[in-house]
Write a structure and sequence with these properties.
Elements: E1 2-3, E2 6-7, H1 38-48, E3 54-58, E4 61-65, H2 67-73, H3 75-82, H4 86-90, E5 92-95, H5 100-112, H6 115-125, H7 138-150, H8 154-166, H9 173-183, H10 186-198, H11 200-204, H12 207-215, H13 217-228, H14 232-243, H15 247-266, H16 272-288, H17 293-299
Parallel strand pairs: 3-5
Antiparallel strand pairs: 1-2, 3-4
Helix pairs in contact: 1-5, 2-3, 5-6, 5-7, 7-8, 8-10, 9-10, 10-13, 13-14
Length: 300
């Protein structure tokens, strides 16, 4: 219609859905790709020993393996098998660093690079009722962490470190901290120190802490530093001063040990004065930088 010289039109638009006009569409070919089987095949080759050219003797058990695979996956295996050492000639290596089950788990990871298989092995070995169902057993992980560090299988070592952070308990937190300190695993060490700080009383009263205080003074110091809130730089400086013994103090400790194990235990109490005199002369010669073996022998 026209209003004031302007033409106005009104209409209704209906949009129909897009439908397939062909009643019999062509079916496209579908090809299903099978999953990878290389891990299972390599494990079968390891278990059966087919084509093996090297033998490991672990706790009296002989484990056959393939030197080319081992050399490609670990620089330590490569060095032992291809550097002219006696193992590269005899093709037999005696392993004294771990038990047979842990070493087999290491080899299975070396052959497959599959962490799911290692987790299955850990679940099979889990026989501690105190461990939660969603956590792997710490002893198995600690042994695997140690051997993966020894043979420089970095991916497995980092995985073990990650899993150990998740399974800390009061009974094993201190031993795991000692292992983290030994292998310089900083993230695991930080997790252990945080856990111990939050559970200080039960951890300190545990048997592992009581036994380890004398063997791991640096670890005990790190616990004190963490509880005191020291930053990493201050703690490192203090730790270095702990590691550096004073020469006089070290010599005095050595003298005390010799006296307590030699003179006192043998019942020669009357020789204490001569022993002390000999020690003083030895100190004097050391301070002057003079070598007098004959006099020192006569004095002793």
């Amino acid at each position: 219609w026209v209003v004031d010289g302007a033409l106005t039109a009104k209409f209704e638009l209906e949009v129909r859905p897009n439908v397939e006009l062909d009643p019999m569409p062509l079916k496209r070919a579908s090809i299903e790709i099978p999953p990878s089987t290389i891990a299972a095949e390599f494990v079968a080759m390891l278990d059966q020993g087919r084509g093996a050219d090297v033998t490991f003797v672990v706790q009296g058990e002989r484990v056959a393996a393939h030197s080319q695979i081992l050399s490609a996956r670990s620089s330590v295996f490569d060095c032992r098998l291809n550097s002219g050492m006696k193992e590269s000639i005899s093709k037999e290596i005696v392993v004294n660093d771990c038990d047979a089950e842990t070493f087999k788990a290491l080899l299975k990871f070396v052959y497959t690079d599959d962490l799911a298989r290692i987790e299955e092995l850990a679940q099979v070995d889990k026989n501690e009722p105190s461990v939660a169902l969603d956590k792997l057993p710490a002893p198995f992980l600690q042994k695997l962490f140690s051997v993966s560090h020894l043979y420089q299988v970095s991916r497995l070592r980092i995985w073990c470190e990650h899993k150990l952070c998740q399974c800390l308990t009061v009974s094993d937190a201190f031993s795991i901290l000692c292992q983290a300190h030994l292998y310089e695993a900083k993230k695991l060490e930080h997790a252990c120190l945080t856990f111990i700080k939050e559970n200080l009383a039960p951890v300190v009263s545990s048997m592992a802490f009581a036994k380890g205080c004398k063997e791991w003074p640096e670890v005990v110091f790190k616990i004190h530093a963490a509880n005191a809130g020291l930053d990493e730089q201050s703690a490192t400086i203090a730790l270095e001063s702990l590691r550096q013994k004073e020469p006089e103090k070290a010599e005095k400790e050595e003298t005390d040990i010799k006296y307590s194990t030699g003179v006192r235990d043998s019942g020669q109490g009357s020789d204490k004065n001569s022993f002390t005199e000999s020690t003083k002369r030895s100190k004097a010669h050391t301070a002057k930088g003079i070598e007098q073996p004959a006099k020192r022998k006569k004095a002793s």
